[in-house]
């Protein structure tokens, strides 16, 4: 059996120097070695690497952002703020929402709260005086998590509604609410298929996970939750079969009928009345005020 022998590690200080020297001819290979060795290094070197990567390309900056989520230090606040003001990169907003002072989050709330970021910035602000969460800006998964954070009761009826809502929007090619359309992929048949499958994994399976977690936190309702989880998984498996069988773009025409058959008619009749891109009419709160429809 043949083995690939890798050379001995060079001193990391030299590797960092080669990465920083754009004329060394070793920038790319040094970057690869740094990524490979980073987790085993002392903070002294990790800090130098993070600063160096933050000064580099977008790919390297995004690698550094993800590392900072696990290795945060307040010394990076000024640099992350500069980069945010220059590029407004989404992964930089994850760091800001997680670690920046609350006053900064309040001052820049609108620009930091797009899409799924709204849930994460709310996590930091819900304990501040006068802050109110707009639940209509949360998708089904994050809505369940937020209600749990706020200590609000969520009934099995509501959980089923949110599960069916996620299924319905998935079948209609919608990701979360309208504010999250930036991650939709429609360039090609294969791209569309891949994006739909991603939605299924992210929204529907995450809801199941969230309810499973809730069952561990609420001992008195555990049996009730376990029964609900079994129901979720059974319906979810039927959805999974359709996702695997759907004929790419043809799903938009033929397979949607199969999809709708999995959702009770009282829900689809209600949702079909709205332009789903108009988030102002397609809200979870609207259902709460009109439960008698169901």
Task: Give your account of this protein's structure.
- With 294 residues, the protein is an all-alpha fold.
- Helices cover 63% and strands 0% of the residues.
- It is built from 16 helices and no strands.
- It has helices at residues 12-20, 27-37, 43-54, 58-70, 77-87, 90-99, 102-107, 109-112, 117-125, 140-149, 156-171, 189-217, 222-245, 255-261, 265-271, 284-289.
- Helix 11 (156-171) runs antiparallel to helix 12.
- Mean pLDDT is 78; it is low at 176-196.
Percent in strands: under 5%
Helical amount: 55-70%
Class by SSE composition: mainly alpha
As residue ranges, the low-confidence spans are 176-196
Q: N- to C-terminal separation?
A: 65 Å
For the biggest sheet, the summary is: none
Quaternary: single chain
Using only CA atoms, what is the Rg?
Answer: 23 Å
What's the β-strand tally? 0
Q: N-to-C SSE series?
A: HHHHHHHHHHHHHHHH
Mean pLDDT: 78
Shape: elongated
How many helices? The count is 16
Keywords summarizing the entry:
single chain, 63% helix
Give me the secondary-structure topology.
Blueprint: H1 12-20, H2 27-37, H3 43-54, H4 58-70, H5 77-87, H6 90-99, H7 102-107, H8 109-112, H9 117-125, H10 140-149, H11 156-171, H12 189-217, H13 222-245, H14 255-261, H15 265-271, H16 284-289
Helix pairs in contact: 1-2, 1-3, 3-4, 4-6, 5-6, 6-9, 10-12, 11-12, 11-13, 12-13
């Amino acid at each position: 059996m043949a083995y690939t022998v890798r050379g001995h590690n060079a001193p990391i200080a030299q590797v960092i120097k080669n990465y920083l020297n754009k004329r060394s001819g070793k920038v790319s290979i040094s970057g690869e070695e740094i990524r490979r060795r980073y987790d085993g290094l002392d903070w002294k070197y990790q800090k130098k690497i993070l600063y160096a990567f933050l000064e580099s390309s977008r790919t390297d900056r995004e690698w550094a952002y993800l590392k900072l989520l696990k290795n945060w230090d307040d010394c990076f606040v000024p640099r992350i703020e500069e980069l945010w003001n220059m590029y407004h990169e989404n992964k930089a907003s994850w760091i800001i929402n997680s670690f920046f002072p609350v006053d900064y989050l309040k001052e820049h709330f609108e620009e930091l709260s797009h899409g799924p970021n709204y849930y994460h910035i709310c996590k930091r602000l819900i304990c501040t005086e006068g802050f109110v969460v707009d639940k209509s800006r949360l998708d089904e998964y994050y809505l369940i998590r937020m209600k749990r954070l706020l200590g609000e009761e969520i009934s099995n009826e509501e959980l089923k509604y949110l599960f069916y809502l996620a299924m319905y929007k998935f079948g209609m090619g919608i990701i979360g609410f309208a504010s999250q359309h930036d991650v939709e992929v429609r360039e090609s048949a294969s791209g569309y298929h891949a994006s739909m499958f991603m939605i299924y994994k992210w929204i529907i399976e995450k809801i199941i996970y969230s309810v499973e977690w809730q069952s561990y936190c609420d001992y008195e309702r555990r049996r009730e939750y376990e029964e609900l989880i079994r129901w979720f998984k059974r319906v979810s498996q039927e959805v999974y079969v359709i996702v695997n069988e759907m004929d790419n773009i043809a799903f938009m025409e033929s397979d949607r009928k199969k999809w709708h058959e999995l959702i009770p008619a009282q829900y689809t009749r209600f949702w079909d009345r709205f332009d789903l891109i108009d988030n102002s009419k397609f809200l979870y709160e609207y259902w709460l005020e009109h439960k008698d429809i169901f």
